[in-house]
Design a protein that fits this description.
By secondary structure, the chain is α/β, with parallel strands linked by helices. It has 10 helices and 13 strands. The longest helix has 28 residues. InterPro entries: LysR_HTH_N, LysR_subst-bd, WH-like_DNA-bd_sf, WH_DNA-bd_sf.
């Protein structure tokens, strides 16, 4: 059985093809001419092919030798990229990191934090994937994502979770609504009130309703929105009421709409958290990232 060639042998082959001379190729690789020649002969024997035709004064690379040298160049470049990638990721919070975010948190939390994050960790390249909780957790478990920014309660199995902050709700109504002049409402005030909420798959839908058990609103089954901005627009048009998370309101979601926002007492807030696999080699980094996000949001 033939053995795989060493990277050093491939380097010698490329150097010989480029220099067309054993002496210059050996000098380029910082080895003796005899060492280079011996290594290439071993490569030929191992592969069962002729790479070069040798005479006392010249060397002629065979057509197959040229073709194999082209492949060797790609292998050497890929190997260098492999090593460079590892080196880039060996620093704390550096290199590539893939972060999943749910759409009711990410667009409102990350824009205010990213400039600080880039300044603090300039070597970190964060790739963001937005989606619904179920899909993001599946991507995390399969290894496609390094971590997910989500809202609890949600079944996350044995994933590590790092709590960031609690996110409450406000009732959004038109100025003409009977509750518009109230500063506070609670679950009893909203009992059987039909709420426009996000479509199925968005965990905020269930969080918002379960926050008021045993009393509270019910979902308007005739309408399901795809985004929080759609919900605000529908409320502003007088088509109903909704519950909005504080993180989105703080980020300016309702600034351009004529709606009244009312504090909701006794509603259980959702917990915004960063989760990752227990087996992740970047666990310590992710805990540090969670601490940074938590402090940046609170600050």
């Amino acid at each position: 059985m033939s053995h795989l060639p060493s990277l050093r042998q491939l380097e010698f082959l490329v150097a010989l093809v480029e220099e067309q001379h054993f002496g210059r190729a050996a000098e380029k690789c910082n080895v003796s001419q005899s060492a280079l020649s011996t290594a290439l002969k071993e490569l030929e024997q191992n592969l069962g092919v002729h790479l070069a035709e040798r005479t006392k004064r010249s060397v002629t690379i065979t057509p197959l030798g040229n073709s194999l040298a082209d492949r060797a160049r790609h292998i050497l470049l890929d190997t260098k990229a492999f090593v460079d990638f590892a080196a880039a990721n060996s620093k704390f919070l550096s290199g590539d990191m893939k972060l999943g975010v749910i759409s009711t948190v990410g667009p409102y939390l990350l824009p205010g934090i990213m400039p600080q994050l880039r300044k603090k960790f300039p070597d970190l390249r964060l790739f963001i994937k937005e989606g619904i909780t179920h899909d993001l957790l599946a991507a995390l478990q399969s290894g496609y994502l390094d971590a997910v920014l989500l809202a609890l309660p949600f079944e996350i199995g044995d994933l590590v979770h790092f709590p960031l902050f609690e996110d409450g709700y406000k009732l959004a109504v038109t100025p003409q609504h009977p509750l518009a002049n109230r500063q506070h409402v609670d679950g009893q005030d909203l009992t059987n009130t039909k709420m426009m909420l996000l479509e199925k798959g968005h965990c905020l839908q269930q969080h918002a309703l379960s926050a008021f058990l045993p009393d509270g609103p019910v979902q308007d089954s005739s309408f399901e929105a795809t985004s929080l901005s759609t919900l605000v627009g529908m409320v502003a048009e007088g088509l109903g009421t909704t519950l909005l998370p504080d993180v989105a309101i703080t980020a300016g979601l309702t600034d351009n709409y004529d709606v009244c926002l009312i504090d909701v007492d006794k509603a259980l807030p959702r917990e915004i958290a960063l989760v990752w696999r227990k087996s992740s080699p970047r666990g310590e980094e992710l805990q540090h990232l969670g601490t940074f996000i938590k402090q940046a949001y609170e600050g």
